[in-house]
Design brief:
Oligomer: single chain
Radius of gyration: 31 Å
Distance between the termini: 60 Å
Strand order of the largest sheet: 3-2-1-4-5-7-6-8-11
Structural class: alpha/beta
CATH superfamily of the largest domain: Vaccinia Virus protein VP39
Largest sheet: 9 strands, mixed
CATH class of the largest domain: Alpha Beta
Number of strands: 15
Shape: elongated
Strand content: 5-15%
Amino acid sequence: MSNNKPDVKFIFEITDKVLWNTFRKNEIGDVLLPFVVIRRLDCILEPVNAKVRAAYENFKDKVGEDKLEPILRKATIHPSLPKGVQFYNTSRHTLESLKENPKTVEMDFNNYLNGFNAEVKDIIDNFQFDKVVARLVKNKLLYQMIDAICKVPLHLNKVDNHNMGYIFEELIRISNEQSNETAGEHFTPRDVIELMIKIVFSTEKEELTKPGIIRTIYDPALGTGGMINLAKNYIIDELCKDEKNKPVIRTYGQEINEQSYAIAKSEALITGENADNIRHGNSFTEDRFPDKNFHYMFANPPYGVTWVKDAKFIQNESANPAGRFYAGLPGTSDGQLLFLQHMISKMENEGSKIAVVTNGAPLFTGNAGGGESDIRKWIISNDWLECIIALPRDLFYNTGINTFIWFLNNKKPKHRKGKVQLINANVPEDKDNGIDGFCHGEKRSLGNKRNKIESSHIEKLVEIFTNFTEGPYSKIYSNNDFGYYQITVEQPEYDENGNIVKDKKGNVKPDTKKRDKENVPLVEDIEVYFQNEVLPHVPDAWIDFEKTRIGYEINFAKFFYEYKGLRSSTEIKSEIEVLEFGSDDNKGITELLKELLG
């Protein structure tokens, strides 16, 4: 990704001079993020404040609030803002003017905040900014904080919208790293996002550089907005940087956590995006984009989080053939596959790509005929699954478990149709044994994050993906290879005399204690499998075909298993012979081993 590093020294200066010893390290972002947003809005509005306030005084008692808002937004039009902006402030204060009266700064600051339009006040409320202000007031730091933030130049002629996005992203990154004990809940490491983005867009440049292209990017578990913003920046700054035709990229997202939503919406607002495309709410029970489809979708939904409180709503929708969850329901202890179904429902008919991070559970949990298996069957049978990458361990801030990235595409290229590529990147660097791997250790651990995927690793993985050939880290399978028949094998019940027990109709009675299940690959004949694999061991067994189910699973361990034969006795003996033992007891053991090994 771009090495464009914004100047964010002010973060550390304000932390050291104002906030230190009052706010803990992991709370610094709670203070700085809303203040940076307010400062940016304040700087943008500086040339139009007088015009906005004049319009407010002139019309506030003459028109209703619904008609007043467009008038005030129109008042933000200015040579520096030819299209105006989505926000305004009607108070008589600015951040600079608040410094004129230190004794009344708390009252004046509240008046200033209340002067913003409803959308900005919604962001401020979701930041829970009143708690931050209360602590600043209690510690007599509000005036100092306002004075310090006023020294940060965030005017449009000094920091354009694009660079403001970089500053805000860097502030989010630093804030989350400093609060690494909870960072993974709302923050995906940059290296993981970069891999997702570069894989998704590795084959998109030709399409994106055609004239008049408009594309949408969406995240239903938005967090602070990092995925959609970094994806957009990658397209504009790198993929299409030197191209004559550049696409119009529109970003969308929904987030349930109030503070994360406030951060994401703030970034949209202060960088000139449409802030209305960032919405608050539960993506399962309150889809804020019910009739919208998207070209690219990215997500890192929470792992192992229960959806019990949403169960009734989701179960009702799952009964509707036109609903998002009709393919099946996972167990209520984990909603990852619900997010995946939700994203699939948002695919454009003309073509969409999805990249979503999960843990291992969605790949293989659930029995044949169960919800998880049926969802996998639905995805793979529709030929949407393009690739899964097994990530190195210890990449995330709050978990060290195995993680995977699913890549879905409803317009696969011809050579990928009917096939799924599996890439094993869970290979750490091991220079001593000549293994480059796909990660190396961080200089210092950040929570559970001990490893990092470097750009060189990402380029190698992109190359493996685009080459679409088999190798030590890449396997290619047909869709049917992930499916299996789960057959029920019965054996007869015998009485105490060794005779087969029959029921009243004369049918052989199965012994439920001996009942077993076998998974037969879809590509094999059930009868042939039964003859070759079961009957030689239990010759009186039979299949209860009424209980046969079809299941799907993606077992990475099985697909990348490499058989390592036993070492020869000659090899072991030669190693023993070169060992030096210091005691007579050990010499005796050595001689015994030599004798046993011949």
